[in-house]
TrEMBL record:
Source taxon at top rank: Bacteria
Domain Aspartate/ornithine carbamoyltransferase Asp/Orn-binding: from-to ranges: 150-297
Record's keyword annotation contains Transferase: yes
Higher taxonomy: Bacteria, Pseudomonadati, Pseudomonadota, Gammaproteobacteria, Oceanospirillales
Protein name as catalogued: Ornithine carbamoyltransferase
InterPro entries xrefs: Asp/Orn_carbamoyltranf_P-bd, Asp/Orn_carbamoylTrfase, Asp/Orn_carbamoylTrfase_sf, Asp_carbamoyltransf_Asp/Orn-bd, Orn/put_carbamltrans, OTCase_ArgI
Subcellular location: Cytoplasm
Residues annotated for L-ornithine binding in this entry: 162, 219, 223-224
EC number annotated for this UniProt entry: 2.1.3.3
Protein's organism: Marinomonas sargassi
UniProt keyword list: Cytoplasm, Transferase
Similarity-based family: Belongs to the aspartate/ornithine carbamoyltransferase superfamily. OTCase family.
Length: 301
């Protein structure tokens, strides 16, 4: 039987996702109480990073250690992956020795190929198209601060990229309205938008989009791999900064999120990220708890 993978949020049903988010908060409580809980004793997670990371690496590695298991950091620089060993072969070999594999890479097709040839669960830790682990943490964070997100208005301000695509999937699974405010030419994938047209609206005016929002989310203008476009994007995203004026258009109790790392003064004004309505630190911490819930779901069921 092929293993259960987590390549996009849609690998979970709506009920499974809701259950996983509740479990993430329970695991957070267990951890904060100092209770030892080690369901993954002697289990090993391989972590393949083809892009930089702080939160993803620390949360998966710490999570595996807290669960009694172990995490292996693998970079293309010092594995044969960087010397052109085929993904199919790497998947067969690595998965024969570990219990799960986490991958951060560029092309989403790479992770799909790896999963196809892997004998153990594969977790998407960010591709150019999706960042589902971040959405687990974001949704957990919203729920912990404001309760159910069902029926709420979420506004994505910025690039229609990996994070935005995962927000579209979350809107479908958790039943909220997503307004994407992006410059022309930076819209999310048209097929994905068409598939979820009952949930997603695209606007090109961030301030109009922000009206009566319950949650405002943004991300860097230039993602990893797009460093050469930084200058052009700074110009193209003029008017798409989340600042105090934009936040004032949202509902009074609206939250602000950012997956981090952030560039204060570019996509977000320092006053917004450092304001009490900003839950970015809880959001980052919840990567740990949400991914522990995911590991438990994939490896202990
Ligand atoms: N948000 C996020 O994935 O952070 P890292 O790039 O630091 O892992
Ligand atoms: N969109 C960003 C997210 C980083 C966590 C990137 O892909 O670089």
């Amino acid at each position: 039987m092929s293993p259960r993978h987590f390549l996009t949020l849609k690998d979970l049903s709506s009920d499974e996702l809701k259950q996983l988010l509740l479990r993430a908060s329970e695991l957070k409580k267990i951890h904060k109480e100092g209770t030892q809980f080690q369901p993954l004793k002697n289990r090993v997670l391989a972590m393949i990073f083809e892009k930089s990371s702080t939160r993803t690496r620390v949360s998966f590695e710490a999570g595996m250690a807290q669960f009694g298991g172990h995490a292996l950091f693998l970079s293309p620089r010092d594995t044969q992956l960087g010397r052109g060993e085929p993904i199919e072969d790497s998947a067969r070999v690595i998965s024969s020795m570990v219990d799960a594999v986490m991958i951060r890479t560029f092309d989403h097709a790479t992770i799909e190929t790896f999963a196809k040839y892997s004998s153990v669960p594969v977790i998407n830790a960010l591709t150019d198209d999706y960042h589902p682990c971040q959405l687990l943490a974001d949704m957990q964070t919203y729920q912990e601060h404001r309760g159910s997100i069902e029926g709420k208005k979420v506004v994505w301000v910025g690039d229609g990229n990996n994070m935005c695509h995962s927000y579209i999937n979350a809107a479908a699974l958790l039943d909220f309205q997503l307004v994407v405010a992006c410059p022309k030419g930076y819209e999310p994938n048209a097929d994905l938008v068409a598939e979820h047209q009952d949930r997603v609206t695209i606007l090109h005016d961030a301030h109009e989009a922000a009206r009566e929002a319950d949650l405002i989310v943004t991300d860097v203008f230039a993602s990893m791999g797009q460093e050469d476009e930084q200058e052009k994007r700074l110009k193209d995203f003029d008017g798409f900064q989340v600042n105090t004026e934009l936040m004032a258009k949202a509902n009074k109790d609206a939250l602000f999120m950012h997956c981090l790392p952030a560039h204060r003064g570019e996509e977000v004004e320092a006053a917004v990220i450092d304001n009490p309505d900003s839950v970015v630190w809880d959001e980052a911490e919840n990567r740990l708890h949400a991914q522990k819930a995911l590991l438990e779901f994939l490896l202990c069921n």
